Amino acid sequence: MAIKFSNSFLMRKLHQVTGIVPLGIFFLFHIYTNSAALNGAKVFNDHVEDLHEMPYLLLVEIFGVFIPLMFHAVYGMLISSEAKVNVFNYRFARNWFYVLQRISGVYLFFFLLFHILNFRFGLIPGLNMTPVAGNAQQAYAIIAKEFAIWWVLVLYILGLLATAWHLAYGVFLFAVDWGIVIGVKAQKILLYGCLGFGLILAFVGINSAFAFKRPCGFMPAELCQDPAERSPAEKAPTPRMPVQKGP
Fold it and tell me: Which of 45, 81, 212, 215 is positioned for an S-S bond with 144, CB 3.0–4.6 A?
């Protein structure tokens, strides 16, 4: 009898946990860092440099990101290969959401491999050959050059959409499967909340990607001014009024 990996209780629970902690938290931190590009190259490069100077960075990357990511991605692919799609027989929203979760997971498996090889290591022939790691002060220029290629930008927009959906609906599944949210009404409210959360993540992520093409992304440039482009009057601190002392 063939072993079905999707039937393993412990593996499925571990798969769900790693999707939230540490991978979900890492994604939130990642788009926060990318959002620094809204304020220009210098601000973004300084953020990346601060990350590179973080103590135990290599250990955090290996045990906090790469190993959990490898497990989550490979086991997720095994689950997807054993999935039975029945959306054409039972066209409920939950069934479509399940299919989208599997499709987004498969796309992310290949997208993240491309993303890591491209920006982390600079190993994609014909594209960027300068890794962001170890070149913090060139980080903005490296990413902006890649995003100037239309199909690379499209890949990343799809990757951000897939990640936003996968995490948002994954939070819902985690809360339901772990018995944190039980009632039908409570689950419905949570589902709407998670879908809203996913839309916010998608907007923030895509807006930060377009910040490498134009200041502030989709938002008015006045909201995100590059400190390097401020006038001397704006950079100067506001003078304090002298305090008059009594006679």
Answer: 212
Architecture of domain 7-219: Up-down Bundle (1.20)
Asked if residue 146 lies in contact with residue 124, where contact means CB atoms within 8 angstroms, the answer is: no
Give 14: exposed, middle or buried? Use CB within 10 Å, 0-12, 13-18, 19+: middle
Are 209 and 34 in contact by the 8 Å Cβ rule? The answer is yes
Q: What is the pLDDT along the chain (247 residues), one digit of tens a residue?
A: 455 666 788 999 999 999 999 999 999 999 999 999 999 999 999 999 999 999 999 999 999 999 999 999 999 999 888 877 776 666 678 889 989 999 999 999 999 999 999 999 999 989 989 999 999 999 999 999 999 999 999 999 999 999 999 999 999 999 999 999 999 999 999 999 999 999 999 999 999 999 999 989 999 888 886 555 554 444 445 555 555 555 4
CB of 52 closer than 8 Å to CB of 223: no
Q: Read off the pTM.
A: 0.87
User: Which of 152, 65, 163, 145 lies closest to 105 in space, CA to CA?
Assistant: 163
Six-digit token string for 72 = 């989550």
